[in-house]
Protein 1
Amino acid sequence: MSIADNLLEYKSELDKTQVELIAVSKYQEPAAIMEAYNAGQRVFGENIVQELVDKQAQLPTDIEWHLIGHLQTNKVKYIAPFVKLIHSVDSLKLLIEINKQAVKNKRVIDCLLQIYIADEDTKFGLGFDEAIELLRSEEFATLKNVRIVGLMGIASNNATEKQTLDEFIELKVLFDGIKVSFFRKDDYFKEVSMGMSGDYKLAIEAGSTMVRVGSSIFGKRKIKHYKTE
Ligand SMILES: *Cc1c(COP(=O)(O)O)cnc(C)c1O
């Protein structure tokens, strides 16, 4: 099936829900992104800063670009002028830098706290306690140009369906707790970014509001020359 066909299939499936589709276009050529764009998709996720910056410069300006991969503090400045949502905030230090660059660009940047839910050592993210500590800190209260709009998580690789579902439910429960404790009156705190090609159905079952789907829309990843961190 073509990229457009794959997208339309996801769209009709997700239309029954309130879940937003982030088309993960990492390692895909701009032509493939344009195919999705021409089929109506406007929200794309990338995980490498340089690749995101290069594509943003050459593709239509009404695309909403999300950064979903690990972000180094020294690279925030490159995406701060345009990024729509950063899914991968995993430290207060990073959030402070995003705030600083947002001030420079006279904007407020929406962010998700990436929470560590997987049962493995390789994934980035905050532990539950660390996330709460960050939100309680005096420093966080001074950051006026970042807005935490929810949480993001990545489930374990190669887990059983039950374990994957349990990990997503843990994230949703944490979201609900943080909502009540820190954002009760803030309508903007509403996003739970979880679910990828292999597990988005389980994520939706657990309460996802944003799924990040790459390979099952675009097929195999093509570009290899960008350096991962
Ligand atoms: C690559 C990636 C995805 C998409 O993965 P697929 O399995 O291709 O759907 C989602 N989230 C993050 C953080 C990623 O790096």
Protein 2
Amino acid sequence: MEEELRLLQIDNPTPAQIATSLDEIEEENKKRHLSVVLIGHVDAGKSTVGGQILFLTGQVDDRTIQKYEKEAKEKSRESWYMAYIMDTNEEERAKGKTVEVGRAAFETEKTRFTILDSPGHKSYVPNMISAASQADVGVLVISAREGEFEAGYKRGGQTREHTQLAKTFGVSKLIVVINKMDDPTVNWSQQRYEEIKKEMRGFLKRSGYNVSKDIQVLPISGLLGTNMKTRMDRGVCSWWEGPSLFEALDAVEVPPPDPSGPFRMPISGKYKDMGTVVMGKVESGTVTEGDSLLVMPNNTPVKVLAVYCGEKKVRRAGPAENLAIRLSGIDDTDIFFGFVLSSVANPIGAVTEFVAQLKIHELPDKFVFSAGYKAILHIHSIVEECEIAELMHQIDMETKQPIPKKVYSVNNGALVICRIQVNNLICIEKFEDIRQLGRFSLRTKDKTVAIGIVIGLPLHQ
Ligand SMILES: Nc1nc2c(ncn2[C@@H]2O[C@H](COP(=O)(O)OP(=O)(O)OP(=O)(O)O)[C@@H](O)[C@H]2O)c(=O)[nH]1
Ligand SMILES: *[C@@H]1O[C@H](CO)[C@@H](O)[C@H](O)[C@H]1NC(C)=O
Ligand SMILES: *[C@@H]1O[C@H](CO)[C@@H](O)[C@H](O)[C@H]1NC(C)=O
Ligand SMILES: [Mg+2]
């Protein structure tokens, strides 16, 4: 009976088999995916731009907008209703400031986008960095309103700090949107636009961007949605002949993720079900049913029995997919969160120390950052106690060059290179190799002390 069934399936594929082959076809035709982080000074309009994108792509209806208008008015924040689409918690709405990174998704002709709306306030810099280190492209939002550009751009303003941090944490392309062009102090003035553009281009060049290749500047109104989805209305602004924000985003060129890289999937969940099922997001490479892999750092050889992408069984899956993988060869009790499912030919290294570039954010009272400092390391799905073994040198934020003198301790705001040690073997990568496995935060008492990237690993372990 069973034999018969199997024969039947060859001639008449089951719905599951059809779905599997359709998935593979779909995989191949799929639009590229880009993550976009919105950065910039507090109140520049990041959440408004994010909310407007969702509105323009039909993801928020008029009734909801009216509800937000009413709620914003009740909180004496009339103009904040568009930002309310992204700022969803009570504190954010009451104060008109983003705290948590907001997420949203939309599509253009060639691209599926994930938007990460970061907070501009300086207290939340770690959240901004965490968003930036996940992004391919940055949209730097600048307010053209009288006094606001100046306030954001001066020392201590977040326009410069965010730009430099975005560059440090891997955002290689920037679209600079000069926002609030509709404001009565601006009235779509070309002179104001050019003034800001000139200043920004000089600064971006000094921060290490190639302004002709990596930077695009354009004027918008996030509040009114002007020059965002469709090109500029000539009745509103006669001098702008360039692209809209959506066009500019669609045209950004970034190297696609490499499906032929070494397979890496940090394990963030597991259960027992006809073998051991592990869950996680593929950060590099491709997995196919039947593959032999290693569970690291304990070097256990395993075999892939089945791959599930969401609810669907697939034969093969590549980078950025969230998967559940059924394995044979390992017991679920031998797997811990933070372990990495890895290729055999090119396995991920397991280390107890690494060299990092760190931005010190907020030290506990009366503490300085020096060798011997202890914190909790959070890197991909790993949570592990660590100690600073050595401060190597401090980096000048603007020039990105090491400061040529011995450093023993640093304070908040410093950018430093240091050596970090942990007690147990951990599997990580250099940030430049696989970003998501090479960026981390250091925390003490639930506060982010520093954010960093892995820049060096020991050669032999
Ligand atoms: N006139 C005008 N006002 C705008 C525009 N974009 C944003 N605003 C206003 O600027 C204020 C701040 O907007 P948000 O979107 O909350 O700014 P944000 O950059 O997200 O601020 P943080 O999350 O605190 O960093 C609100 O009052 C908005 O209505 C615009 O294009 N034109
Ligand atoms: C912008 O236009 C408004 C209304 O037309 C006017 O009241 C305001 O003075 C203008 N502002 C500038 C800077 O030209
Ligand atoms: C910037 O990019 C352009 C275009 O790719 C290139 O011709 C130019 O040499 C680059 N400039 C710098 C300073 O790298
Ligand atoms: Mg915001």
